[in-house]
Design goal:
InterPro entries: Metallo-B-lactamas, RibonucZ/Hydroxyglut_hydro. GO terms for molecular function: 3'-tRNA processing endoribonuclease activity. This is Beta-lactamase domain-containing protein. There is one protein chain. By secondary structure, this protein is α/β, with parallel strands linked by helices. The protein has a single domain, classed as 4-Layer Sandwich (Metallo-beta-lactamase, Chain A), CATH 3.60.15. It has 7 helices and 14 strands. Strands 6-5-4-3-2-1-14 form a 7-stranded mixed beta sheet. A 7-stranded mixed beta sheet has the order 7-8-9-10-11-12-13. Strand 3, helix 1 and strand 4 form a beta-alpha-beta unit. Helix 6 packs parallel to helix 7. The longest helix is centred in the first third of the chain and has 13 residues. It starts with a strand and ends with a strand. The structure holds zinc ion (2 copies). One zinc ion binds next to helix 2. One zinc ion (ZN) binds next to helix 2.
């Protein structure tokens, strides 16, 4: 599998950047994971023909993870009018908040599929499973498995023990690390770099990529505090960069 980072900031981007968006590809499959602001423009660099996009997965309905769906609806609709897109695009997402779920649909742009913990989906032999995270909105971490490789994306979450079991056995964990540990308190609905390191050690992982950066913090410092805990392969998400699983 190949992962391309389209956007790695949240809950707003830095100048020239985008919020959450990742393109996951295998030989026969293209999947968009999250679609925050700025992601559609980046996606079209790699997948200008939306017929080739097999599915979209949305972790949760915070705008930094889904707001470009509002614009993508128009792209789908107009590409259909111009005969450039044959089918609506399948999208997998939580059904809450209801008003956001309802708002996404526009002129049949998407085929909506609701996800829950325990949902199991297979797309061209790629298996996808979900774990509900600890976040103010209903949010899911996702595991993508193909050819004995497992890739996990955290979505947004606070630290919770159940996450460790879910990420176990993954070849790569793409994990939100929104803030430095010195700014962490119980009201922050995200992970610090140090917490990501602790999760990775407890789950016995060998490789982690940090993402979902708050633009006000130093990513170098975040990397350092994670490294102090997690001694294995650690990278930061960079927009436009590919990572192989
Ligand atoms: Zn977020
Ligand atoms: Zn969120």
């Amino acid at each position: 599998m190949k992962l391309t980072v389209l956007g790695c900031y949240g809950p707003y981007p830095k100048a020239g950047g985008s919020c959450s968006g990742y393109l996951l590809e295998s030989e026969e499959t293209k999947i968009l994971i999250d679609c925050g602001n700025g992601v559609l423009s980046k996606l079209l660099n790699y997948c200008n023909d939306l017929n080739k996009l097999d599915a979209i997965f949305i972790s949760h309905m915070h705008p930094d993870h889904m707001s470009d769906l509002m614009v993508m609806r128009y792209a789908i609709n107009i590409k259909q009018m111009f005969g450039k897109l044959k089918q609506p695009i399948p999208i997998y997402l939580p059904a809450s908040p209801q008003e956001e779920y309802d708002r996404i649909q526009y002129q049949g742009a998407f085929v909506r599929n609701i996800i829950h913990e325990g949902t199991e989906i297979s797309i061209n032999n790629m298996k996808v499973t979900f774990k509900k995270t600890d976040h103010p909105l209903e949010c899911y971490a996702m595991a993508f498995e193909k050819d004995n490789k497992k890739f996990v994306y955290s979505g947004d979450t606070k630290y919770f023990d159940g996450f460790i079991d879910f990420v176990k056995g993954s070849n790569l964990l793409l994990c939100e690390a929104n803030i430095l540990h010195k700014y962490m308190n119980e009201n922050v609905p995200h992970l610090s770099g140090r917490q990501v390191g602790e999760i990775a050690v407890k789950a016995d992982l060998q490789r982690v990529i940090l993402t979902h950066f708050l633009p006000e913090i130093s990513v170098a410092e975040l990397l350092e505090e994670t490294k102090e805990v997690f001694p294995h392969m650690l990278q930061i998400a960079e927009e436009g960069k590919c990572y192989f699983i």
